[in-house]
Specification:
The chain is an alpha/beta fold and 255 residues long. The protein contains twelve helices and seven strands. It has a single domain, classed as Rossmann fold. Bound molecules: zinc ion.
Length: 255
């Protein structure tokens, strides 16, 4: 939290104040409650990687999935997705504060199923590294950097692995889902509302996320008595859906 407030108070705005309104527009478009979503992110920043805490955004192409997490990579020392079919997919993770994993695909990320479960659960994992880097083939990681990821779809336990191991696919899938709060962005941003020039603004995004924390310092989504069976965001009622003709929506530029 301190880092978030510090980034909001210092640094330079690179978006002419447009990042926050664009984020609000986007969440409205996706029928995701803005305070709830920000609460999830702040809660993960506070609690670190663990079950039901890491945040995963799934959804359609061009739905703005990567937009919401991009500034986190500027605000924090972050671990980001490495190349395709990476032999050492978690190399560089130790020492980072957060993980920003954009457009992750199971088959190309290079991390095995069980390690994904351990990583998301907060367990100690062994990270494979080239021998010439660490003098060893693997190093132990027990850091707490929370996971923020975007994917087209939630990972499914590969059928080939299920056949090999005899494990139950549904059970494995449920295990994976339990590591995250999953938020779906099902609606592509209308072409006329897209703004590829809008930069990920660390200052404005930090202010926007920090604003969601209540005066007592507890993120709204951190409530312990939340029903376990509600991993998806509550959808706003249709009447509350954003309407382009609303004046406050007109101020928001495209994402
Ligand atoms: Zn800005």
């Amino acid at each position: 939290m301190a880092r978030l407030k510090e980034a909001a108070a210092s640094g330079e705005c690179v978006c002419q104040g447009q990042w926050g309104p664009a984020a609000e527009y986007l969440l409205g478009l996706q029928h995701v409650d803005s305070k709830y979503f920000r609460g999830l992110v702040v809660r993960a920043l506070q609690l670190g990687r663990r079950k039901d805490v890491n945040v995963l955004v799934t959804g359609a192409p061009d739905a703005g999935k990567t937009f919401v997490f991009k500034p986190l990579a500027k605000i924090y020392r972050s671990f980001q997705t490495r190349g395709q079919r990476e032999r050492f997919p978690l190399q560089g993770l130790p020492g980072r504060d957060v993980c920003v994993l954009q457009d992750v695909r199971y088959e190309s990320f290079g991390l095995c199923w069980d390690d994904w479960l351990r990583w998301g659960d907060g367990e100690t994992i062994m990270i494979n590294v080239p021998r010439n880097v660490a003098g060893a083939a693997s190093i132990e990681y027990d850091g707490s950097a929370p996971l923020f990821a975007t994917m087209a779809d939630v990972f499914h336990f590969p059928l080939a692995e299920a056949r090999q191991t005899g494990r139950d696919v549904e059970r494995e899938n449920a295990q994976f889902r339990s590591r995250w709060r999953i938020v779906d962005f099902p609606r592509p941003i209308p072409p006329e509302r897209r703004n590829t020039a809008l930069e990920a603004c660390a200052k404005c995004a930090a202010a926007w996320y920090a604003e969601a924390v209540q005066a007592d310092g507890l993120a709204p989504a951190a409530a312990q008595d939340e029903p376990e069976a509600a991993p998806l965001l509550p959808c706003l009622a249709a009447a509350q859906a954003p309407e382009p003709q609303r004046p406050q929506r007109k101020r928001a530029r495209s994402v």
